[in-house]
Design brief:
The protein is of the alpha+beta class and 205 residues long. It is built from six helices and eight strands. A hairpin with a 6-residue loop joins strand 2 and strand 3.
Length: 205
């Protein structure tokens, strides 16, 4: 009995040690698994894991969540596509979900996480739209932003920032009008340009 008791006493620390080792292995998870991993009940805070480029720019990632409208009389992609925008914390205009890319996650996982935390949606992440450099007006810090399209498959009723942000589906034209950030509007134009091309939608496997 003493042997069994000793094993049971030491088993939890051993499991914790094993998990700590597994977390350090840089494994690229499939997107379906990443969507489950991304179901968190709180937002990440702090900058101790924040990534920066070789120019000292803070690396930021995000998504443009979109869906196809059920309409037969649309005459352009502006009418066929709706995008999900969220309210800015300062109350000025709307934006797309984005945030810091941290050292313990892939770029795609970070983009999915930020979209879940800020907008409360999940879906299929597609190939990157591009990267943009901009300066934060509030903190005077330079950022390098990488944006992805996210074809929304699920809208959650509860998400980490539900109490501090509002979300709404708008047309592309409306998003252009209400988003004050030029670089986000340029990312939106790239999304629209892609959707106008005849080839099938590209998804990251």
């Amino acid at each position: 009995m003493r042997g069994i008791s000793g094993f049971l006493t030491n088993f939890p620390p051993f499991i914790n040690f094993l998990f700590s080792l597994l977390e350090r292995i840089p494994v690229k998870l499939p997107m379906q698994i990443e969507k489950m991993v991304s179901r968190v009940s709180y937002s990440r805070t702090g900058r101790h894991l924040q990534r920066y480029n070789n120019r000292g720019f803070r690396l930021v990632v995000g998504c443009i969540p979109y869906r196809y409208r059920k309409t037969e009389d649309a005459t352009s992609n502006d009418e066929v596509i709706e995008v999900l925008v969220i309210s800015a914390q300062n109350g000025k205009g709307v934006l797309f979900p984005k945030g810091g890319w941290e050292k313990d996650e892939s770029m795609e996982r970070a983009a999915i996480r930020e979209t879940l935390e800020e907008a409360g949606v999940l879906g299929n992440i597609e190939f990157k739209l591009g990267k943009w450099s901009y300066k934060s007006k509030r903190q005077s810090i330079f950022h390098e932003a990488h944006m992805f399209p996210l074809l929304v498959k699920e809208e959650l009723d509860h998400w980490p920032e539900k109490n501090i942000r509002q979300r709404k589906w708008v047309t592309v034209s409306k998003a252009r009008e209400e988003c004050p950030h030029l670089w986000m509007r340029e990312a939106l134009e790239e999304l629209v340009r892609r959707r106008m091309q005849p080839h099938p939608k590209e998804e990251v496997n």
